[in-house]
Write a structure and sequence with these properties.
The chain has 356 residues and is of the alpha+beta class. The protein folds into 3 domains: 84 residues, Orthogonal Bundle (Arc Repressor Mutant, subunit A); 146 residues, Beta-Lactamase (2-Layer Sandwich), CATH 3.30.450; 96 residues, Enolase-like, domain 1. It has 15 helices and 10 strands. The strands form 3 sheets. Strands 7-3-10-9-8 form a 5-stranded antiparallel sheet, sandwiched between helices. It has a 3-stranded antiparallel sheet with strand order 4-5-6. The chain has a two-stranded antiparallel sheet with strand order 1-2.
């Protein structure tokens, strides 16, 4: 049992109700909730003074905070966590929300990236937040790899798969690369790549680079490593992560300080810092997960929450994730079933495509 669950279990009914109503009121309005407001909604008739005493106890426990003197209370991050884990009532998915997501899918035409972009736009529109869609890795066998110099500090990696799928990635090569070293790197990879998936190639390549280190000059070896990094690990994340609905968060944030935090969030996303952390957290288990504020370091500076669910292919293997970013006062009860349904839809679409 974690700390928040233990605190919740030890509360009496009155404290639990005051806490729940403060959080629900804050999530609905974004404003602090005062004792006089609660006297009108409590299931038992109690005085404002009694409620204030309960609020003070909850504040002492670290569950509530008072942003201004005598202006009511708001939940802390710990309080929101405890509410989400122990008191959140998840609603049924509304028919209108389901229909909006379904309508965007259309005929399932276009490539997977286009389909996921449409789904991200739908998810953002339905939730009025920013959506994240983590696309699946392409795991078909590789047919050919090539590197093309675009300028002194930019190169294009071209990856052709055996099923006809083509991926192009622009990346920054190490200083001093030449067309000759690029050709050598491509030849080295192609000798290893055919018939192998990208994941398999990366594993084999690390062994081969060690074994044949003397056969490759320094520049070519760096190129090989940079080229694969265009698809794997941190270099892979930008192409796999689709972000839609930035304007929704900016429009909802009236205060300059909050706007700055939201911009910081998207600056982080655009630089793709800590994306690996997001991927690991999103892909490590089934079901919808909720990260509040600093629980996810990617969003800790923005005061935001992330509601995310992995999706699976026909083999029940987790291959990606969908999620919604919003302020910590998200309507979690409504957002959770939307994210859950969207993840199921994406998984089914990916599985159906695999059968085709």
């Amino acid at each position: 049992m974690n700390e928040s669950s233990k605190i919740l279990e030890e509360m009496n009914d009155r404290s639990r109700e005051v806490f729940r109503r403060v959080v629900e009121g804050y999530l609905a309005s974004g404003d602090p909730v005062g004792s006089r407001t609660l006297t009108r909604s409590m299931s038992e008739k109690v005085s404002a003074a009694t409620i204030r005493n309960v609020m003070q106890d909850l504040e002492f426990l670290g569950l509530l905070d008072s942003p201004h003197v005598s202006a009511g209370r708001v939940p802390t991050q710990l309080g929101l966590r405890m509410f989400v884990d122990g008191l959140l009532e998840v609603q049924e998915l509304e028919i209108e929300d389901r229909e909006k997501i379904d309508a965007t899918l259309g005929s399932n035409a276009g490539d997977v990236g286009s389909m996921l972009d449409r789904i991200g736009a739908a998810l953002s529109g339905v939730t009025h937040g920013a959506s994240l869609v983590l696309a699946p890795k392409h795991e078909a066998p590789i047919k050919h790899i090539d590197f093309v110099s675009l300028s002194h500090d930019r190169a294009l990696a071209v990856l052709v798969f055996a099923d006809g799928h083509l991926e192009n990635r622009v990346f920054r090569p190490a200083p001093g690369q030449t067309p000759s070293s690029m050709r050598e790197a491509a030849n080295f990879l192609n000798a290893l790549a055919e018939g192998r998936t990208l994941s398999e190639l990366r594993e084999v390549m690390s062994h081969e680079i060690t074994r044949r280190r003397q056969e490759l000059d320094e520049l070519a070896r760096t190129m090989v490593q940079a080229g694969i990094a265009a698809w794997e690990n941190e270099g892979e994340a930008p192409a796999r992560l689709i972000v839609r609905g930035r304007a929704n968060l900016l429009e909802d944030s009236a205060e300059a300080e909050e706007l700055d935090r939201i911009r910081t969030l998207f600056d982080d996303l655009e630089r793709k810092r800590d994306i690996v952390d997001f991927l690991e957290r999103a892909e490590e288990g089934e079901g919808v997960r909720i990260f509040i504020g600093s629980e996810n370091k990617l969003f800790s500076l923005s005061g935001s929450s992330l509601v995310v669910s992995p999706y699976m292919n026909a083999d029940r293997k987790i291959i990606g994730a969908v999620g919604v970013i919003g302020p910590t006062r998200l309507n979690y009860g409504r957002i959770v079933p939307i994210v859950d349904y969207t993840a199921q839809v994406v998984g089914k679409l990916i599985s159906d495509r695999g059968k085709g």
